[in-house]
Specification:
By secondary structure, the chain is of the alpha+beta class. It has two domains: 112 residues, Rieske Iron-sulfur Protein; 186 residues, Naphthalene 1,2-dioxygenase Alpha Subunit, Chain A, domain 1, CATH 3.90.380.10. Helix content is 21%, strand content 31%. A seven-stranded antiparallel β-sheet has the order 11-17-16-15-14-13-12. The protein has a four-stranded antiparallel β-sheet with strand order 5-6-7-8, with no helix packed on it. Strands 1-10-9 form a three-stranded antiparallel β-sheet, with no helix packed on it. A hairpin with a 2-residue loop joins strand 9 and strand 10. Helix 3 packs across helix 4. The protein is globular and about 80 Å long. The relative contact order is 0.15.
């Protein structure tokens, strides 16, 4: 499956910029292969529309903001955040503006310091992330950057706790302690939740960031798939610290993702601690990025395409959720159309193992 093959993905909300970055100039954004423009208009209202002027198709993101309206740089037409055209300079001043002369707007909201857009008719609201606007927590934005990886692969990686011991062996992981303990998984509709504990290595950076001492700690993580491309994880430490991790994966297109990560902490970190938290989390994410950018963008939906273990229960359920969304359309081809070499090799291996006479 490629994200472009699933129309249902257009019915969810995706962050496309930090609110603080949407100021005096229009910003382009790309979601699911389509180009959009976002801008801040009168009284601070943010607008979002297809990045194409209804007059002659020029990029509205190449224009500028004037009196709170987005001005097209081609012929000077101006648009309010609602998409309504407010000025056609070539017309007589008293001539009415035709109702059809409007930018094709899309839904846009600001929350958690981010600008979110929904390309279609939303089946859900902007994701609820309780700690992100809880005054008892400190919200820290860490990174927003484009990765050369597909959005399902990015979220699948977030749900996969068992990779920590290996992928992050140089930061927080410990390959000598790869086991997950007391794993519990539940699914309600399209929401997935899990709880698991594991041994995490305490590097000097981790000791500074958590206030813990020693070389290791047993960390409890409470992971949640909030929406298909939105992940939340409440990490519990023995000293009462709650480090809440949020990851969003805006599908730019089939092969690229706008990855955003932010955290909420209940320990009221000062400026120096915040800098240390951000530095370590960026290092951890660079390890994920390096690995994910080498994985093919197609995402498997059939359970037989891959091998699974008991610790893969969250990611197996994730495949089922995406498969259900994909089944709403006839555009998604079977896994075998792109994974045949791998599947054939696996089947041949099983056949040989069960029929020793065929060996050699």
């Amino acid at each position: 499956m490629l994200v472009s093959q699933v129309p249902a993905f257009k019915e969810y909300w995706y962050p496309v910029a930090y609110s603080a970055d949407v100021v005096q100039v229009p910003r382009p954004a790309r979601v699911l292969g389509e180009d959009y423009v976002i801008w801040r208009g009168r009284e601070g209202v943010v607008g979002a529309a297809v990045d194409e002027c209804p007059h002659r198709g020029s990029r509205l993101s190449q224009g500028w903001i004037e009196n709170g309206d987005l001005v097209c740089g081609y012929h000077g037409w101006a648009f309010a955040p609602s998409g309504a055209c407010t000025r056609i300079p070539q017309n007589d001043p008293d001539a009415p503006i035709p109702p059809r002369a409007r930018a094709l707007s899309v839904l846009v909201e600001e929350r958690y310091g981010l600008v979110w857009i929904c390309p279609g008719m939303p089946r859900e609201s902007v994701p609820e992330l309780p700690e992100a606007d809880d005054p008892q927590f400190t919200l820290i934005h860490e990174l927003m950057e484009v990765w050369r990886a597909s959005a399902p692969r990015v979220i699948d990686n977030a749900l996969d706790v068992s990779h920590l011991a290996w992928t992050h062996r140089n930061t927080i992981g410990d390959s000598s302690n790869p086991r997950m303990n007391n794993l519990k998984v539940e699914r309600v509709g399209q929401v997935l939740r899990s709880r698991v504990s594991y041994i995490s290595r305490l590097t000097p950076e981790q000791r500074r960031n958590t206030g813990l001492s020693g070389d290791f700690t047993t960390r409890v993580t409470n992971s949640e798939l909030v929406q298909p491309f939105v992940f939340r994880d409440v990490m519990e430490y023995e000293n009462g610290l709650r480090h809440v991790l949020f990851k969003t994966a805006t599908p730019v297109d089939d092969t690229h993702t706008l990855f955003c990560q932010f955290v909420a902490r209940n320990d009221n970190p000062d400026e120096d601690k915040v800098a240390g938290i951000v530095a370590l989390d960026r290092k951890i994410q660079s390890e994920d990025k390096e690995l994910l950018e080498q994985i093919r963008p197609e995402f498997p939906l059939e359970m037989q395409t891959e091998m699974h273990t008991r610790t893969d229960r969250m990611t197996v359920e994730y495949r089922r959720i995406l498969a259900e969304l994909a089944s709403e359309s006839s555009l998604v081809p079977p896994d075998r159309t792109w994974s045949r070499p791998f599947v054939d090799a696996a089947r041949a291996s099983v056949k040989t193992a069960t029929n020793p006479r065929e060996q050699g």
